[in-house]
Amino acid sequence: MSHALQDQRPAPAHKSAAPARLTRGGLPRWAPAGIAALSIALGCGIGAVAGLASKIQWGLIASILFVVITYTASAVVENRRQAKDRIATSLVWVSFVLAVIPLLSLIWITVSRGLKAFSADFLTHSMNGVTSFEPGGGVYHALLGTIEQVALAALIAAPIGLLTAVYLVEYGKGKLAKAVTFFVDVMTGIPSIVAGLFILTTWNLALGFGPSGFAGAMALSILMMPVVVRSTEEMLKLVPNELREAALALGVPKWRVILKVVLPTAIGGIATGLMLAVARIAGETAPIMLLVFGTQLINGNPFEGAQSSLPLYIWEQYKVGSDASYDRAWAAALVLIAFVMILNLVARGIARWKAPKTGR
Amino acid sequence: MAKRIDVSGLSAFYGTHKAIDDISMTVEPRSVTAFIGPSGCGKSTFLRTLNRMHEVTPGGRVEGKVLLDDENLYGTGVDPVAVRRTVGMVFQRPNPFPTMSIFDNVAAGLRLNGRYKKSELTEIVEKSLQGANLWNEVKDRLNKPGSGLSGGQQQRLCIARAIAVEPQVLLMDEPCSALDPISTLAIEDLIGELKERFTIVIVTHNMQQAARVSDRTAFFNLAAVGQPGKLIEIDDTDRIFSNPSVQATEDYISGRFG
């Protein structure tokens, strides 16, 4: 009843928020690309006229111009809201380009310089009998060392990290879980040289073992463990609780629920996290220097005697300071990047292969 | 196969908060009992105490007795895993295991509990899918992932998964609330068939559904938000919907309240 009464009253007059017309002026679709081209041209022009030597300054001028011109054009032709939208979009684009340029130039420099000394021989030979100043020699001993050390480190760190994450997500509560989380966070911040010194004092000095790939692997595993725990933890948290409850309600013991339902559901993400952790430790130099010592010879046994590794090899070759050794350093850098990239591709493959399927 | 459930003086807690207070009721074997009541009155919590799933929730705690025939589920030395094998559960939202095929989903309860021969599994899976009225729709794609089915099919897959382990009691927590009327009808028909073999307890917000499928209906209510839920009355479904003995029940089912 009351509704009907209210409806008869005239609606209170107030300014409507709705626009009078739905159409509006708009920049053409090619506008962002056009403005980008214009601002790059202007940036180069201004840079050349003002005699700025650094191309970085040219680029910065161009990117600032891009943002300003986009905003002005949109504010004039369209309206304030559109202009704000466009300024946000153009800032995102500029940041993206600024972030990608160093990455691309790094890959470009590594590939262009690394290819000089890179060959099948480079991959299959060591530095045995090659003086550092002359060309030739190869990276085989270092590549072998890196693979063995990283594999050993992963063998140590992956199970411990995985089980810690399972504990934290599935079982942990109260003070112990909080303490574990805290120490994992602390471990994330350990500088790699400190991990190296720790193994040096315990394994090498206190227990009296000599330098070996295994000693390096232990230090690397200390660095790898917190990364594995963190990434696995996040992945396990993403598994819906409903799946755990569904399995529990079928009368499945908790450990089997974790093993057969929770872990398989998260395995793609866990594998990716593992590979990223491996990629992180593959480039470590400091603990390797302390513990693996470095050698020019092929040593396939990581438990006995000095080995080499790719980052250490790069550092050694660069230190020599001859043209030939520079080339070798860059080629080794190329091998290291390729190694990490292949690992990443493998991880993505596993993630895609194991991901929960949705197709009909 | 089916067993009687005898609940006496049961209260459930989340931490210090009491969710349901002093509930006593009897559920007859080979019958369908429906729980109705406003949201938050503890129907689902009570249902989850019947197969010890309540304690899976952090802070979940139960006082009182639940007798399954003559065994107390909360007695000393009772293995919650064994309880859940005896009392199966179907959840509100269909939750097939995403990494498993349709076949593996149905076989999951058996496979995760012990060793079965392939031929045995094939037989049980076919029987369970037929029991859930899903066999004809999926028999040609048993190796496809279970998450590729429609919502109604997924829910029937979950029912097949639950009955594959041959429980004595089947608990259903709003099994149709995420489904369209046709899938709902399919599941209601299925409940009618399943009660020949199982004791069924179903939580529902749909009063027509309670009237259609259940033999007995229990009405739950809570005094105010934050107060524990209580069992107001339980009676034959016909009586509850025609001539309930408590005024609050009549108010609720006639839509004057809640």
Automatic annotation (TrEMBL), chain A:
<keyword id="KW-1003">Cell membrane</keyword>
<feature type="transmembrane region" description="Helical">
    <location>
        <begin position="89"/>
        <end position="111"/>
    </location>
</feature>
<keyword id="KW-0812">Transmembrane</keyword>
<feature type="transmembrane region" description="Helical">
    <location>
        <begin position="30"/>
        <end position="50"/>
    </location>
</feature>
<feature type="transmembrane region" description="Helical">
    <location>
        <begin position="209"/>
        <end position="229"/>
    </location>
</feature>
<comment type="function">
    <text>Part of the binding-protein-dependent transport system for phosphate; probably responsible for the translocation of the substrate across the membrane.</text>
</comment>
<dbReference type="GO" id="GO:0005315">
    <property type="term" value="F:phosphate transmembrane transporter activity"/>
</dbReference>
<feature type="transmembrane region" description="Helical">
    <location>
        <begin position="181"/>
        <end position="203"/>
    </location>
</feature>
<dbReference type="Pfam" id="PF00528">
    <property type="entry name" value="BPD_transp_1"/>
</dbReference>
<keyword id="KW-0472">Membrane</keyword>
<dbReference type="GO" id="GO:0035435">
    <property type="term" value="P:phosphate ion transmembrane transport"/>
</dbReference>
<keyword id="KW-1133">Transmembrane helix</keyword>
<keyword id="KW-0813">Transport</keyword>
<comment type="similarity">
    <text>Belongs to the binding-protein-dependent transport system permease family. CysTW subfamily.</text>
</comment>
<feature type="transmembrane region" description="Helical">
    <location>
        <begin position="261"/>
        <end position="282"/>
    </location>
</feature>
<dbReference type="InterPro" id="IPR035906">
    <property type="entry name" value="MetI-like_sf"/>
</dbReference>
<dbReference type="InterPro" id="IPR051408">
    <property type="entry name" value="Phosphate_transprt_permease"/>
</dbReference>
<dbReference type="InterPro" id="IPR000515">
    <property type="entry name" value="MetI-like"/>
</dbReference>
<feature type="transmembrane region" description="Helical">
    <location>
        <begin position="150"/>
        <end position="169"/>
    </location>
</feature>
<protein>
    <recommendedName>
        <fullName>Phosphate transport system permease protein PstA</fullName>
    </recommendedName>
</protein>
<feature type="transmembrane region" description="Helical">
    <location>
        <begin position="329"/>
        <end position="351"/>
    </location>
</feature>
<dbReference type="GO" id="GO:0005886">
    <property type="term" value="C:plasma membrane"/>
</dbReference>
Automatic annotation (TrEMBL), chain B:
<dbReference type="InterPro" id="IPR003593">
    <property type="entry name" value="AAA+_ATPase"/>
</dbReference>
<dbReference type="InterPro" id="IPR003439">
    <property type="entry name" value="ABC_transporter-like_ATP-bd"/>
</dbReference>
<dbReference type="GO" id="GO:0016020">
    <property type="term" value="C:membrane"/>
</dbReference>
<keyword id="KW-1278">Translocase</keyword>
<dbReference type="GO" id="GO:0005524">
    <property type="term" value="F:ATP binding"/>
</dbReference>
<keyword id="KW-0813">Transport</keyword>
<keyword id="KW-0067">ATP-binding</keyword>
<keyword id="KW-0547">Nucleotide-binding</keyword>
<dbReference type="GO" id="GO:0035435">
    <property type="term" value="P:phosphate ion transmembrane transport"/>
</dbReference>
<dbReference type="InterPro" id="IPR005670">
    <property type="entry name" value="PstB-like"/>
</dbReference>
<dbReference type="InterPro" id="IPR027417">
    <property type="entry name" value="P-loop_NTPase"/>
</dbReference>
<dbReference type="GO" id="GO:0005315">
    <property type="term" value="F:phosphate transmembrane transporter activity"/>
</dbReference>
<dbReference type="InterPro" id="IPR017871">
    <property type="entry name" value="ABC_transporter-like_CS"/>
</dbReference>
<protein>
    <submittedName>
        <fullName>Phosphate import ATP-binding protein PstB</fullName>
        <ecNumber>3.6.3.27</ecNumber>
    </submittedName>
</protein>
<dbReference type="Pfam" id="PF00005">
    <property type="entry name" value="ABC_tran"/>
</dbReference>
<dbReference type="GO" id="GO:0016887">
    <property type="term" value="F:ATP hydrolysis activity"/>
</dbReference>
<keyword id="KW-0378">Hydrolase</keyword>
